[in-house]
């Protein structure tokens, strides 16, 4: 079988997640996986050592190629499923049942999939299909046909009818529901993606979503394995997004809500809120990355650096960005000792918080003129990021100039959860464990509202972020963390779609609300149907504020019966934005493109208000109850 798979260029992978909180799996376990990935050319296998204490669950054996629209449905599996993605040729997959579409005249020689099955199975299957159809006394969308006497390695083939693609319809849902009955394993192709014209990523999304829903509501005890199989011709459809990583970027999902990306590229081309320049105490280092930054920024920044004068060895100086596409350049004196690099990065991160930045690009300190090893610098920088308590900062991009450095940084120690992928790897699977580390074990539940202890660091972080821009002596009465897996899953899917934004794609923002609407939001998400009740000046969508003082206004968060106000701290995928006005019901298209902007704002140069028009574009992280 190994030789056969090799000849067919088939990738086989095992990926198993035991329970909620999978992102807390030890880094040592991830290190073992990384070593295995490197040694075995990205053939990964992880087995749980103790599943006997867990309730029976379904294995989802799937996802050979995926588009971004599947990415966060897969993340759902971290919490509730044992997941093993497997890529095999459909016709040699050993399973109880395989599923295929068929034409309304039941001719197996028509259609790519049914024709392939017919060729493998032999004429006996065509005979069985006609017999099963005649034997059926009711109109069914699925005809279960015995595979006995055929050359297939399964017990039955379920044939289904689908119309030509026009729009989303319940057909795929009905097919899946009708097939789950009394079997241990079922294999689905990407239904309808041949002559029927269904988009591959939508077909896969529909099927996966229904399997997950079926698992939650009515999964038969007998069913243990569900396979989704895509044919090699569809590989390119999925390669650009989702669980296929960008070959120029490695994501590291770290602690405390900060997303870290390792970029191999030019820091002067970054479009984050600020870039960092590692320079000398006179701010005029004319070598390496510092030279490139000053040349790209232009004379105005050079003159501003001269005006700042000599700086202390641990100094951090902020200037304008000149010709570089960011708001600020943060200059810091370069260090050549790992411990000092950690301190330096901490100082830069704190200055970023002072500036209320949401994204930051850093160079790999000391790997140029300093001649430090990439591994030592990676550990030092990641130590600083892990020590830092974020408020506004959500995204950090570490920009390196050698591919080898990128791999080293992605393999640095104790990163919580890592992307097991490298640019030259043949493995397209990106393992992304994104259950927030702060979440309490939900024990199979999909929703929890968790009151934070007033003595916890998490409580202090959220309170400080709220009070920092409150402009009033509010008394924080209670902070509750919202753990809603369905909303989180949907939000992550949307966030993935706006990551290509040229601006910081994610921000921590505030939303004022009434106590009744607040309950609706944390249970069911933000709803544009509530728009128009208060602010509509920048569009008829859902409003979020950079400063808590705006949302804390009693117009937006009125007093409840107890004299308390309520405000939501939300994670919002703002993406690319455009100036709004009161008549807009959606963002306009980008110049020369059919794609729309992601959000509207009050001021494109310094936005303080964001308006979104997709209900899954924001996630309610915390509810803050307060009074004067």
TrEMBL record:
Which PANTHER family does the annotation name? PARP/ZINC FINGER CCCH TYPE DOMAIN CONTAINING PROTEIN, POLY [ADP-RIBOSE] POLYMERASE
Report the principal subcellular site: nucleus
Q: What InterPro entries does the annotation carry? A: Macro_dom, Macro_dom-like, Mono-ARTD/PARP, Poly(ADP-ribose)pol_cat_dom
**Key word Nucleus present in the record?**
yes
Q: Species name for this entry?
A: Eptatretus burgeri (Inshore hagfish)
Q: What Enzyme Commission number(s) appear in the record?
A: 2.4.2.-
List residues traversing the bilayer: none
UniProt protein name: Poly [ADP-ribose] polymerase
Identify its protein family: Belongs to the ARTD/PARP family.
Q: Which GO terms describe its biological process?
A: negative regulation of gene expression; protein poly-ADP-ribosylation
* SMART domains named among the record's database cross-references: A1pp
Q: Name one GO molecular function term.
A: NAD+ poly-ADP-ribosyltransferase activity
């Amino acid at each position: 079988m190994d030789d056969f798979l090799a000849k067919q260029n088939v990738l086989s992978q095992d990926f198993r997640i035991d329970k909620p909180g999978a992102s807390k799996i030890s880094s040592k376990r991830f290190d073992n996986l990384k070593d295995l990935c490197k040694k075995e050319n990205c053939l990964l296998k992880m087995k749980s050592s103790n599943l006997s204490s867990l309730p029976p669950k379904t294995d989802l054996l799937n996802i050979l190629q995926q588009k971004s629209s599947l990415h966060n449905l897969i993340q759902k599996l971290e919490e509730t499923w044992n997941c093993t993605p497997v890529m095999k040729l459909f016709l040699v997959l050993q399973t109880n049942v395989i599923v295929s579409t068929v034409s309304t005249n039941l001719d197996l020689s028509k259609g790519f999939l049914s024709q392939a099955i017919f060729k493998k199975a032999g004429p006996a299957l065509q005979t069985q299909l006609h017999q099963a159809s005649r034997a059926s006394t009711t109109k069914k969308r699925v005809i279960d046909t015995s595979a006995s006497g055929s050359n297939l390695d399964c017990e039955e083939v379920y044939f289904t009818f689908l119309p030509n693609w026009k729009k989303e319809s319940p057909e795929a849902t009905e097919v899946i529901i009708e097939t789950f009955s009394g079997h241990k394993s079922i294999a689905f192709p990407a239904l309808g993606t041949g002559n029927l014209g269904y988009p591959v990523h939508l077909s896969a999304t529909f099927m996966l979503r229904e399997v997950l829903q079926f698992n939650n509501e009515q999964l038969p005890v007998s069913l243990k394995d569900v396979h989704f199989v895509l044919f090699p011709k569809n590989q390119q459809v999925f390669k650009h997004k989702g669980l296929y990583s960008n070959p120029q970027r490695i994501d590291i999902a770290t602690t405390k809500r900060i997303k870290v990306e390792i970029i191999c590229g030019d820091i002067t081309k970054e479009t984050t809120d600020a870039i960092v320049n590692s320079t000398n105490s006179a701010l005029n280092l004319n070598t390496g990355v510092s030279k490139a930054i000053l040349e790209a920024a232009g004379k105005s920044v050079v003159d501003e650096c001269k005006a700042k004068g000599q700086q202390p060895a641990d100094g951090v100086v902020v200037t304008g960005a000149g010709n570089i596409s960011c708001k600020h350049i943060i200059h810091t004196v370069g260090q050549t000792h790992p411990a000092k690099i950690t301190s330096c990065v901490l100082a830069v991160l704190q200055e970023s918080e002072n500036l209320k930045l949401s994204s930051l690009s850093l160079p790999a300190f000391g790997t140029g003129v300093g001649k430090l090893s990439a591994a030592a610098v990676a550990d030092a920088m990641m130590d600083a990021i892990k020590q830092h308590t974020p408020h506004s900062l959500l995204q950090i991009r570490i920009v390196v100039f050698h591919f080898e450095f990128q791999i080293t940084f992605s393999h640095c120690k104790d990163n919580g959860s890592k992307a097991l992928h490298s640019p030259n790897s043949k493995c397209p699977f990106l393992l992304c464990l994104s259950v927030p580390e702060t979440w309490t074990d939900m024990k199979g539940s999909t929703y929890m509202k968790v009151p934070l202890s007033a003595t916890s660091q998490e409580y202090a972080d959220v309170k400080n972020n709220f009070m920092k821009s409150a402009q009033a002596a509010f008394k924080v009465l209670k902070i509750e963390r919202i753990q809603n897996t369905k909303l989180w899953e949907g939000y992550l899917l949307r966030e993935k779609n706006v990551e290509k934004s040229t601006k910081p794609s994610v921000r921590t923002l505030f939303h004022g609300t009434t106590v009744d609407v607040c309950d609706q939001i944390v249970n069911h998400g933000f709803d544009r149907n509530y728009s128009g009740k208060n602010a509509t000046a920048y569009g008829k969508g859902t409003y979020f504020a950079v400063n808590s003082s705006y949302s804390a206004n009693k117009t937006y968060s009125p007093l409840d019966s107890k004299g308390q106000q309520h405000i939501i701290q939300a994670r919002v995928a703002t993406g690319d934005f455009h100036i709004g006005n009161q008549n807009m019901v959606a963002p306009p298209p980008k110049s020369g493109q059919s794609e729309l902007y992601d959000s509207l704002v009050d001021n494109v140069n310094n936005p303080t208000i964001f308006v979104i028009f997709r209900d899954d574009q924001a996630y309610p992280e915390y509810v803050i109850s307060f009074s004067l």
